[in-house]
Fold 2-dehydropantoate 2-reductase.
Amino acid sequence: MNKKHIVVVGLGGVGGYFGFKINQTNETSGKYTVSFVARGETYKKVKENGLTLLSPEHSNTQTYPNAVEENISDIQNPDLVLICVKEYDLENVCKQLLPVIHKETILLPMMNGADIYDRIRKIIPEHTVLPTCIYVASHIKERGIVEHKGKAGKMIVGRDPEHFSAPVEWITELLDESKIDFDFKDNSLTDIWTKFIFIASFGLVTAKHNSSIGAVCTDEQQKNEATEIMKEIKQIADKKGIYLQEDIIDKTFEKASTFPFETPTSLQLDIHSGKKDNELELFAGAVLKYGAELGIETPFTQKIYTEIKEK
Ligand SMILES: NC(=O)C1=CN([C@@H]2O[C@H](COP(=O)(O)OP(=O)(O)OC[C@H]3O[C@@H](n4cnc5c(N)ncnc54)[C@H](OP(=O)(O)O)[C@@H]3O)[C@@H](O)[C@H]2O)C=CC1
Ligand SMILES: CC(C)(CO)C(=O)C(=O)O
């Protein structure tokens, strides 16, 4: 039997952490074929030196996949594609994947955001897409070198609602063998939206004020702004039939208060470091789009979206 071909697209914080784990296990077992897709400087570095992960979980920091590709078009017969890019690269990646995937290829987006499944579906309508929620704290230290801090990363992977019976057992086996902490659920949407309500509200408010998670929990104005954004997201989830706890807003503040006071959010860091791209559309754009589609007013998200855009 042919080995399953696993492709990791994007070797940043997420792809560099989870892709490393899958590949390092496979270097010993040889059970799968693993390819990494990276671009520019990252491609050159990983092709030359392998992928480096600095993490308390791995004493051997290097891993070398079966192939490193610079272009998605060079991938052949992928069985599983881990999409590990920021939201602003998603459509571009999906358009390039469409001609290289085969009928049975499964797509596993490892990204934040409530609308990722819908956005992939628009470009890739037929294939199995497993909606997934990711928890990890990892970032690019240098091209080809990813640093992971804190708790072990975790994935909550769900069945595709449109391909509920797609054979995914081999994927859970792969994650198990790779010693990745994961839950597999029939429906992962509650997990995805529970994380979304947190990162969207805290991301937007910290980005507006260049503050911190602690400041959003304690400053009256910031707390109020985050609360109003969460209310809008809760209404959207309700209308979409996605279950969120009734006291999700209190629960979200409780969770946020367990973070060190000064913790920044990724959206805030991206906006205030003047990076060319950021995930504002992922956090606010999605709320505005769903609000308009479902006839739900989203004035607080609209206001903060405009304020951040004007920065
Ligand atoms: N990092 C974290 O701790 C967490 C991140 N997330 C979410 O996960 C998603 C991924 O984030 P993260 O890994 O941090 O992002 P990064 O920016 O660290 O990594 C994304 C990588 O994808 C690469 N990439 C983009 N397009 C292509 C392409 N066409 N071909 C090859 N490589 C490509 C980028 O390349 P280049 O460098 O050239 O731009 C970059 O290296 C986001 O939605 C984020 O919000 C969720 C939980 C935690
Ligand atoms: C947990 C949190 C909100 C802070 O780092 C995050 O994951 C993010 O900003 O993307």
In short: The longest helix spans residues 189-209.
